[in-house]
Amino acid sequence: MEATVDHARTLLTAAREVVDRAVSRLAGDVRGSNARVDLARLDREQALVYDLSAAACLVGAGEAMLEWGESGGLAAMLTTAYSGHVAAEVAARVQGRERAWGVEALPWHHGDVAQAFAAARSVELLERITEQVIAGPLPSPPLTDELDMARRVFRDFAREKVAPLAEAVHRNDHDVPESLISDFARMGLFGMGITEEYGGSASGGPAGHSENDLLAMVVATEEITRGSMGLAGPFITRPEILATALLKGGEEEQAKRWLPDVASGELMVGVAVTEPDYGSDVAGLTTTATREGNHYRINGVKTWSTFSGRADLLLLLARTGTREDRHRGLSLFVIEKPRFPGHAWIHEGEHGGRIDARAISTIGYRGMHSFEISFEDYLVPAENLIGGDAGLGRGFYLQMNAFANGRMQTAARAVGLMRAAYEAAARYTQERHVFGSALADYQLTRTKLARMAYLVTACQAYTYRCAHLIAEGGGQLEASMVKSLACNAAEWVTREAQQLHGGYGYAEEYPVSRYFLDARVLSLFEGADETLAVRVIAKGLAERTLR
Fold this sequence. Notes:
FAD; alpha+beta; Acyl-CoA_DH_CS; 3 domains; flavoprotein; five-stranded antiparallel β-sheet; 10 strands; Butyryl-CoA Dehydrogenase, subunit A, domain 2; AcylCoA_DH/ox_N_sf; 547 residues; Butyryl-CoA Dehydrogenase, subunit A, domain 3
């Protein structure tokens, strides 16, 4: 039976029903007061919740692919094959636990759904996909002509300027070269998330950014990450996080003071939120900011503060209230500091106190360095509190406003990294001969390449869908979902690309070894995957049902 996009629609509809039924059952079990989720009850079902979250992410990406799949050809084949992957993955999570999911039997075991499942899972379909994608570039869901042109510009830049530097920076754990930062500035990367009135290129809109703004950021992130994730990094995200905080809750004078120079690349931004004992549990942060006259005295330790050595500005989340205030007692500060190269630095504050920082050695994602930073009686002017006195206690909310875009861009980084890994594997398997035949001629190789192709395009389509939702004022939950899905997919794709290289996949001379190391960090930062699954995605799905 020839697979068609109708099979994909049938399978995704069936999978959606399974997920929705499970979410409905879960919502009833974890319902607390005022139609909110009782977290203690939710935590008692973590095993189910984690699998349900993964299933919901898979289905969401499939639904995002459908419109593209309806255009026929390769898009239809990729969409259909991915829908078969969705059904198989959901089945693996449900089987033996049907009662917990609130279902009696899986729908693709009988009737039309079973036929659709067989068509979507056929090896013949996977081989047909590989025949088309291995001969040329892997397709992407369609964008406007303007964004396609931007994609080509960023792709060429990544190939010519970023990729040649990647291996040396990674192997020697060097800083991102200043020449590359200057190139990024000339291309306008730092201003993509900042509105035109403050020197950026974003047109803005009711939700802060237009869909075109967000898609432009996603495309730039994807393409530059193909050159190197460590060198590209979230150079768009950090300025955008600061801009969002200032424009949502800052004072006009503060926006005018910092944003134009951030947009131009004159001022670089780092973010200091995570603490050694508090990662995803932001509400428990202990770094304190105590008012003393015209200053705040900062004491505490931050960790995983990426690029904070080179940064001119640190966006610091600190506790101005009591521990009992939780997230309502946190405020955001902008700390101005000199630039420091290398892996350790000390800053004696202009007004008193000091900052002592050291880089954390990591197996991948090198170039910007992630620092552990100790603040010792460091005095920051009260005028650097975002929002002034009106900003007291609003730091958590201002920080969260930018998390959706940040997670969406992390998904875009995962997509860019997967594309680089897929392209390396496709090239190598055509060049490498084993037992007298090209590696790409073997069925197992072709099925692996096809799976890579549909995972990349599914995550990409879901990221584009997320940009649309955020521009409309929503998308907070979907941003976490696409981040979870894409980051987990990136681990598999880069691992299989490495595997297809055989022993050379373990050699540093091949970039694919670096891709795998870089991919490993993706499901750890911007919200660890387990926390996203249980406390964000599943909780959000249940609360939607309870409304």
